[in-house]
Amino acid sequence: PRDDPTGILAGDVADAVTGAPLDANLVLEGVPFIIASDAFGLFDRQLPARTYSVRIERFGYRVLTDTVKIGPNETVRRQYRLQPAPRILLVDGDAWVYSAAADSYRAALARLGYVFHEHAVTDDSANPGRPGGPPDAEKLAGYDMVIWSSTLSGPAFVRGASPLSTFLAGGGRLLVAGQDAMCVDAGIDVNDAPCA
Fold first, then answer.
1. Distance between CA atoms of residues 87 and 111, nearest Å
2. d(CA 89, CA 67)
3. Which of 83, 128, 154, 176 has an alpha carbon within 20 to 30 A of 32's alpha carbon?
4. 131-135-140 Cα angle (round to 5)
5. How far apart are CA 65 and CA 127, in angstroms?
6. Which parts of the chain are beta strand (E)?
7. Using CB atoms within 10 A of its CB, is residue 62 exposed (0-12), middle (13-18) or buried (19+)?
């Protein structure tokens, strides 16, 4: 049988501000593997000849997209420059009771081109850093921004207030979103109306 014609996608990935090489992932739509650039930011991969939609991703940088047409026996070279972005942790603070609490934030961050990590609180009685519990201060220290989604409770309810306090004291940024998050955490009603 005849082999399909191939070409090569090659190039480099670097920080758009400093020019420093970056190890990043190139995700090609419809391709079951990822092309990774090395520590020098270089990549080189033989691929079937066709047009590809490419996402270039690295944590701490905005996603870059490209369309690449590779012809038979052709080497296509690209230079990708990624814009720095905050290192974001998305916390699903109510995963223990409702698994879709953070879906809208997940979709919005992806649509805006942010690469982010996730943490799900699946046990409302677990201590910070324990399996199922909220992230501890050490984990939070690795991020610039935390988005905490709690549709039914709040960070203090699931024992996350102390690690968040340490994170904020260290200069971290926090967005807490939830229907009654502050009311539940404060333990008071708003305008004499029940929190629930």
1. 16
2. 29
3. 83
4. 145
5. 40
6. 6-15, 25-28, 34-36, 42-48, 50-57, 64-70, 75-82, 88-92, 116-120, 145-149, 173-177
7. middle
What are phi and psi for residue 126, nearest 5 degrees? -80, 145
Q: Provide the CA 134 distance to its chain's centre, in angstroms.
A: 17
114-173 pLDDT tens trace? 999 999 999 999 999 999 999 999 999 999 999 999 888 888 888 999 999 999 999 999
Report helix, strand or coil for 17.
Answer: coil
The 10s digit of each residue's pLDDT in 11-55 is 999 999 999 999 999 999 999 999 999 999 999 999 999 999 999
pLDDT at 175: 92
Q: What is the C-alpha separation between 7 and 110, in angstroms, rounded?
A: 30
Tokens of 58: 């690295």
Whole-model pTM: value is 0.85
Please tell me the distance from the alpha carbon of residue 15 to that of residue 78, in angstroms, as a whole number: 14
